[in-house]
Specification:
mainly alpha; Serine Threonine Protein Phosphatase 5, Tetratricopeptide repeat; 30 helices; disordered N terminus; TPR-like protein; TPR_rpt
């Protein structure tokens, strides 16, 4: 407001006061008070609340003096002025003052109601009780709110039952009190009562709306505005009813209520846009799905009522998207949230970008975009999700910057004190990094997640330094978010080769998870949801930690981490488990942990320990495989994965046997791995068999090596093993040639060339072929030695030389 208009406002107020100072009679004083009340109402309507409060206080001062005569009229006028003042104080967010003032109004009106049976007095008392209930609700005094609103509802029911003139207006007041009462029940988590009361409010608003349309008992000029308000109130009740139903997980019923609210709000928008009273009337009505008129001259900011209608429609569309999503209709959810985004983008653009309201609107837009990115991610539309979540991050960074103006280093957030903004930014950064990782852009994902870690550290510091009682309750969740972001950061860093950095960040996550988990040997509490989640995250982090340590050769530490991970996974296994019990998720992950632990033990030459550990993994994986039927579809993805995992553990067990010289056990075990992998290749078509053929090749090569070691072992002379070793090596050669031929054919494919697809490298496959040829040459040479006295000896030796020459030629090409 300009200085000129401010002066003018005070001038009007001073003029009224000067008139009062010259007046001495009660009639003149009452006139002055009336003028001050009218002036206060004008100030409030224009948003000048301080002037409205000042004017109302001066009116009350006059009316207190007039009320000394104890007349009905003077006391009623004083109560009315107090009631009005409370509304201005409430609009100014001065809730405590509003409660104090409305209590005075209630006190006066209750005495007047006791002395008079007039309907208007009881209606006025109900109105003040209604206000009282709303104010104390905003202060969190829900039981006091409940008491006041229940009394207001009781009085208004009686007034409706009287069937007085303007009945539909009395019922509208009752519906409004029922609406507020339902809100209070909801705040007390008494959802059954909240739904029941709100359903009655909806029914009464329907009757009010029909009554106003059929036989409006107001002046002709007020008919349309009355009908408009009735429908607007009905839509608001339906919107809130949907919220309460959704909290009861009645999502289908919530969606029905919300969709009806949307239909009504669209209808109100069409009416307003076509109204000659609108600032920019639009003659062409909107369709059911259209949000904005196509008129290029359409100006949203010039019409406050339009702003309110669009705001409410966006809120209902936003909620409808949630109900669609929870009902499994993601396409409908996306359509609804995109309409919400369109509205909220226009709402934000219609406001001064330097105002506080702009940032509020911007925050709402960010929330809707965040929802859209989530829905798209659920559909695995990662590229589309990426665009939405990037805009969310940009918005939320901007909102944080508003509260972090003193920060000299962008992106550090070291001085930001707005915890809600930081938490929202953290979540969007986390999702952005996750989306980038899904698109395999791990370098960018690591950079974004590093920023997320900084934000989460700031949130934890704010909670640690806070004196608020809820800070202690929020701290474990904030620390869990910090641990989760640190853990994922380590994974992304590991993907780009920054293993040492990954180890440091994962240590931070492990330290937090350890604090949130009961000590080893301690039982989990009865309400152990949080503890179980933390224990699972700790076990997963320790498993990843062991993997990173192993990658940099820190095997003793890797073994310690792997053993702790295995111990924690065992704590997660349900008690009273028997061999007939299905393998739990914790057991399945325990198997993979034991598999990795055995590998680290073998690197420390602790092969006996490795054998003991890997056998535990094999036992679990055998049970997993036995739980899945392969009769109908042996190529089922889950079955194939489980069989491949089992064959990997069996393969490693065979290697550990071989290292300690138990060649017979090694050969028998490796043959099991070969049998499983051979079957996997057999039951998959050529398009998917390659991934299994690589495993089969590895097992065949190691099987041939086991035969060779068995044959050359001191004191052994077994003529059966060389032929078997030759057979395994020959199959390895055949598999290698097949894999290499597939890659060469793929690289020469015309479609791939047209698409400029990068050719797949063949170096590793050629090296494997050379190794297979070498193993074949060794086996053939051993067989030639066994059959040296027979004519076949020269044949085996000749074939051995051919294999060696080809292997040497390949190694020469590869410069190995």
């Amino acid at each position: 407001m300009s200085a000129l208009s401010e002066t003018s406002d005070h001038g009007d107020l001073n003029a009224v006061n000067n008139h009062h100072n010259q007046s001495i009679g009660p009639d003149e004083s009452n006139t002055t008070a009336n003028s001050l009340d009218e002036l206060a109402a004008e100030f409030a309507e224009g948003g000048r609340l301080n002037l409205a409060i000042d004017s109302a206080n001066r009116a009350i001062q006059i009316r207190r003096a007039l009320a000394q005569d104890n007349s009905f009229e003077s006391k009623s006028n004083l109560a009315n002025s107090l009631h009005s003042l409370s509304t201005y104080l409430a609009e100014a967010q001065r809730w405590d003052d509003a409660v104090e003032v409305i209590e005075q109004s209630i006190h006066i009106r209750r005495k007047l109601a006791d002395d008079s049976r007039h309907v208007s007095v009881r209606g006025a008392l109900a109105s003040s009780l209604h206000r009282m209930g709303s104010y104390v609700n905003n202060l969190g005094y829900y039981n006091l709110s409940l008491q006041a609103l229940q009394e207001a509802v009781s009085i208004r029911r009686q007034l409706v039952d009287l069937d007085v003139p303007k009945y539909h207006l009395q019922e509208a007041d009752l519906a409004a009190s029922l609406h507020s009462l339902a809100s209070t029940f909801s705040s007390l988590d008494r959802l059954d009562e909240a739904v029941k009361v709100m359903e009655e409010a909806v029914q009464r608003h329907r009757r009010v709306s029909k009554s106003a349309e059929a036989a409006p008992l107001v002046s002709a000029g007020e008919i349309q505005s009355t009908i408009f308000k009735c429908k607007d109130d009905l839509a608001e009740c339906l919107h809130d009813l949907a919220v309460y139903l959704s909290r009861q997980e009645q999502f289908q019923h919530a969606l029905f209520a919300c969709q009806e609210a949307i239909v009504i709000r669209r209808s109100l928008l069409r009416s307003r846009l076509a109204s000659p009273h609108a600032h920019n009337p639009i003659n062409s009505a909107m369709s059911a799905s259209t949000v904005f008129p196509s008129d290029p001259n359409f100006n949203l900011s010039s019409d406050p009522q339009l702003l309110s209608l669009y705001t409410n429609l966006a809120s209902s569309l936003d909620n409808a998207s949630i109900y669609h999503c929870t009902s499994g209709r993601l396409d409908a959810a996306i359509d609804s949230i995109q309409q919400t985004i369109d509205i909220r983008r226009r709402l934000a653009s219609s406001i001064d970008p330097n105002s506080g309201l702009f940032y509020f609107r911007l925050g709402q837009l960010g929330n809707s975009l965040y929802r859209l990115s989530t829905y798209l991610a659920n559909l695995e539309c990662w590229k589309d999700s990426l665009g939405a979540i990037q805009e969310v991050v940009d918005i939320r960074r901007r909102l944080v910057t508003v509260n972090d103006a003193s920060s000299s280093t962008p992106g550090q957030y070291s001085t930001c004190t707005s915890k809600p903004d930081l938490v929202n930014l953290s979540r969007s950064l986390f999702d952005l990094a996750t989306c980038l990782a899904q698109l395999e852009d791990y370098a960018e994902a690591a950079e974004i997640m590093e920023e997320c870690v900084r934000v989460n550290r700031r949130v934890v510091l704010l909670l640690l330094s806070s004196s608020e009682p809820e800070a202690d309750l929020e701290l474990p969740g904030a620390e869990a978010d910090l641990a989760s972001s640190s853990r994922l950061l380590s994974i992304y860093q590991g993907e780009v080769g920054k293993v040492e950095d990954a180890i440091i960040n994962l240590e931070d996550a492990i330290e937090i998870y350890r604090r949130q988990v009961p000590a080893a040997g301690a039982a989990l509490s009865n309400d152990a949801t949080t503890e179980v989640k933390a224990l699972r995250h700790l076990a997963e982090s320790l498993k990843e930690f062991a993997s990173f340590l192993g990658r940099v050769g820190r095997y003793p530490e890797a073994v310690a981490a792997g053993e702790e991970a295995a111990s924690n996974y065992r704590r997660l296994i349900p008690p009273n488990r028997t061999l007939a019990t299905r393998v739990s998720p914790a057991e399945a992950t325990l198997a993979s942990t034991l598999h990795l632990l055995a590998d680290d033990l073998s690197k420390l030459s602790r092969c006996h320990d490795a054998i003991s550990v890997i056998q535990q993994a094999i036992d679990i994986r055998h049970r997993q495989v036995s739980e899945i039927s392969y009769v109908q579809d042996d190529a089922d993805d889950t079955a194939s994965t489980l069989q491949m995992d089992l064959s990997s553990s069996i393969h490693n067990l065979a290697i550990y046997y071989s290292v300690i010289g138990r060649y017979d056990d090694a050969i028998g075990t490796m043959r099991q791995a070969v049998d499983i992998r051979r079957r996997l290749v057999m039951f998959h078509d050529s398009a998917t068999a390659d991934e299994f053929e690589g495993g089969l090749l590895d097992s065949l090569l190691n099987l041939a090596d086991c035969y060779h070691r068995r044959f050359t072992d001191a004191g052994r002379d077994d003529s059966a093993h060389p032929p078997l070793g030759v057979s395994a090596a020959q199959e390895a050669v055949d598999v290698s040639r097949g894999l290499l031929a597939d890659v060469v054919a793929e690289n020469e494919d015309e479609d791939n060339k047209k698409a400029n697809a990068a050719p797949r490298p063949t170096v590793d496959l050629e090296a494997q072929l050379a190794r297979a040829l070498y193993q074949l040459a060794v086996g053939l040479g051993a067989r030639a030695k066994v059959e040296a006295e027979h004519s076949n000896g020269k044949v085996w030796r000749s074939r051995s030389l051919v294999a060696v020459k080809e292997a040497v030629a390949i190694y020469g090409r590869l410069k190995v």
